[in-house]
Amino acid sequence: MRKLLIWLPLGLFLGFIALFASGLFQPDDRVIHSRLIGQPLPAFTLPAAASDRPPLASAQMATGQPRLLNIFASWCVPCAAEAPQLLALKQAGVPIDAIAIRDARPDVDAFLARYGNPYARIGLDARSAVQIALGSSGVPETFVIDGKGRIAYQHIGDIRADDVPMILEKLRAAQ
Amino acid sequence: MRLIMAFLLALIATPLAAQTALPPAPWADRQLVDPAQERKAKALMETIRCLTCQSQSIADSNASMAGDMRSQIRERIMAGEQPEAIRTWLIARYGDWVSYEPTAAPILWPLWGAPLLLLGLGLLLLRGRIKRRARS
């Protein structure tokens, strides 16, 4: 017993080395997903973020047809990068609403004039309150909302060209 | 000289990826009037993790989102909400990850048990030593 016990510190030491080494080699996933997937959209009513689009309220998201809710901002560079993909999704007949985070109307107008406007409605979330209520951790993010107004899927980061078929698939699944 | 000018210009330039076009939220960097409420808000903010700078608490972070969260927490405490209710509300959205305060979830039992285990081991060791000394 005593003879075995003498190896305990070394064993513990090696155990810790193995633990830390595995942490070094494991890819680090720092993406924080919303816990609200499968749950109804939190209730919100936001003022209009753009001059030529109506404001957005959560009640307008339950239309019987799945739609996208895009979280973006005019100051966000990857949001400009995903604009062509959102326009392609709109071309494919997907209704897209948006929430502009910590933004101002002239900036949103300039952003939409420059990169195109795929949105039906745009709400302005000046204090990130709705973003926090959604469990969203940054911009851009895109939520798939099913016909009953429930969150079916959350895409974190910009939508790349090769993400578009997957997003369409998620929309079909949310039917 | 040109290098120095370029450096000075770089200092006053607005960063391209600035996180906001707006001034910070009203209560992001302003203390509550009631010191007791401010103490509660501050204690909560120090144990809520920033979504942008993931190794900082929102009390320490300069990220705009952390500022918005501070402002929201202060406003809700001002409205009479309990800090633990706000923490639960945030955990329901972001998971246990968002709170630095360890919970009593089964996965954390080893964390709570370790001190007791180590203390027990120490006592055992001590007892052995005392016995041995008494014998000699």
UniProtKB/TrEMBL annotation, chain A:
It comes from the Bacteria. Residues 35-175 form the Thioredoxin domain. It holds the Pfam family Redoxin. It is found in: Cell envelope. InterPro entries: Redoxin (IPR013740), Thioredoxin-like_sf (IPR036249), Thioredoxin_CS (IPR017937), Thioredoxin_domain (IPR013766), Thioredoxin_ResA/DsbE_sf (IPR050553). Signal peptide: none annotated. Keywords: Cytochrome c-type biogenesis, Disulfide bond, Redox-active center. This is Cytochrome c biogenesis protein CcmG/thiol:disulfide interchange protein DsbE.
